[in-house]
Amino acid sequence: MARFRPGKEVAGEKTNKPKDTPFKQQRMKAWEPILTPKTSTRIFLFIGIIFLAIGIFWLVVNDQVREIRLDYTKCHEIESYDELEVMPPDNVEKKFKASSAGQLVDQWKRSNKSLTFDGVTKNYTLCTMEFFLPEELQPPVLYYYRLTNFHQNHREYVNSRDKKQLMGDSVSINAIKSSDCGPLKTRQTEDGSEEIIFPCGMIANSYFNDTFHDPIRLPSSSGSNQTHTYNMSRTGIAKDIDRAIYQSSSYQIPAEAGGNDTVIVPPPGWVERFPNGYHAGNMFNPAEDESFMVWMRTSAGNRFAKLAMRNNDDAMERGMYRIEVISRKAQGPFL
């Protein structure tokens, strides 16, 4: 049986009763707009005009972009060796106002290129592509590489780095083991010791390592019979905020290859570039590698393009060009 016992508030005792104010007692004046058909039409028309203006602006900006895409993914599968053949139409995309009709077709070929890293020489696929540029490109001219079906937005992948290590600190092995570098924190050496991976993490390990050469303008039938290299720079491609973050490493390294007075090793995906590990003659410096800075800024989707080279001063003249790419498949686990 429920009972009700009347009482009164004792002076000095706390109470949960809200104060008698318009705000606490919900007596504040409120505005409840009534949207008539005329008012609703005006609002939607105003919002539509704003978005229409934004859309027109981006269409105009996009229309000023001139672009050519060359897909060399399957260049290593070309049956013929060192012989130019027509590129499949699906591998070439051009966005120009001028037409390429009546000009030489775009071609490619597969050959080999030897690269030597720290005294160790290996052969890689050299993909040569020749294409016609129907319009002169005004500076800045930007050279991107584009990847598809590569998920840089995976949570574990995005966090897989140690910021202090990239800022030049000689982070201890215990600190690295407790970091977010995932499975790529340390490596066992041949003598059984455990050494720190620098730079640690899956992002650095999957660093895109194809080599791009400057475009070369080929001789034309009506002009000069000499080739001309269109020089592009690999500096100035990273954001200022990134260049301010990356610093030279303060880890101790041996003076020559084969020394054992070091606590760091390259990531497993970098073994071909550093076959003898780090030493004074080849130590990786993230503060000087802007391509590495660009790669470390992960993308939100599984299709993305990253800046590789640029030319801010010179126009790229109309004509036939050749570009060469050394294709090197990245090694080691990503995720």
Automatic annotation (TrEMBL):
InterPro entries: CDC50/LEM3_fam
UniProt-annotated stretches for the region Disordered: 1-23
Residue ranges crossing the lipid bilayer per the database entry: 43-61
Principal location: membrane
Pfam families: CDC50 (PF03381)
Basic and acidic residues bias (residue ranges): 1-22
GO cellular component: endoplasmic reticulum; Golgi apparatus; plasma membrane
Membrane topology: Multi-pass membrane protein
Subcellular location: Membrane
Family that this chain belongs to: Belongs to the CDC50/LEM3 family.
Name listed for the protein in its UniProt record: Cell division control protein 50
